[in-house]
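Researcher: I'd like a structural prediction for the single chain below. Treat it as a standalone chain; there are no partners to consider.
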Amino acid sequence: MDRERLEQKLCELPVVQYEFFETEELVFTHRVRYVCETECPQYGKSWACPPGVGTVEECRERCMSYPHGLLITTMTEVRDIADIEETLATRPDHEAVTREAAALVREEGHETYVLSTESCAICENCSYPDGPCRHKDKMFPCVESHGILVTELAENYGIEFQAGANVVTWFSLILYR
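Model: Treating it as a single chain, here is the predicted structure.
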């Protein structure tokens, strides 16, 4: 990989911060998955979420088959962070940046596995659980669905994610081999 060239291209995107890491640094925990199960209305409704993504152990095994990773963040200011509709309306911009960053990694000759934000919103009605994902090449499973404690990874690299009362920070992981 020509990391210098990749970093130059990443700097052209509206990425606030990024960091390269080894997947062995990822922390997988059932506590994160428990939040999905008990608090997320998308649980059991999408291939991007549990249980559609598999068990935490299966997710860990899948992720660890990609030895390297790139963590990216974007930030967006909203009028009221408590307004979930306004907050979620900023997600498509982050997903577009994630797509572009993943394409840059693939241009360097790497196979990628991308984890991003919340539940997939590509299809109006997800085929889960009755049929296979219709857009497996475009759908990014949720980071948290895999049980990954992404805030710990961010903290380990000094990545800021609490930038103010009405600033939304979005995370994506681009795992590659």
